[in-house]
Amino acid sequence: MREERGRGLGRLLIGETAKRLLAAGYQSLSLGVILGNDRASTFYERLGGVPVRVEPVDFAEGVEHTVWRWPDLTRLIAG
Question: Model pTM?
Fold first, then answer.
């Protein structure tokens, strides 16, 4: 998988996800990134995501994640 990094696949996947969410009537997107996953956090920040809170992960005791949010999916697609 390392050889695939930097080729735009993640950007393509999140863009397609945003398009499908918009088509289904959603206007925003939130997702969680486990604390310490700096690569993912940097990626989502570059895509215009905003970190809104840190909270425990429901299924893993002692693990926290940052919730990233895009309040306007049209901006995520355009960016």
Answer: 0.83
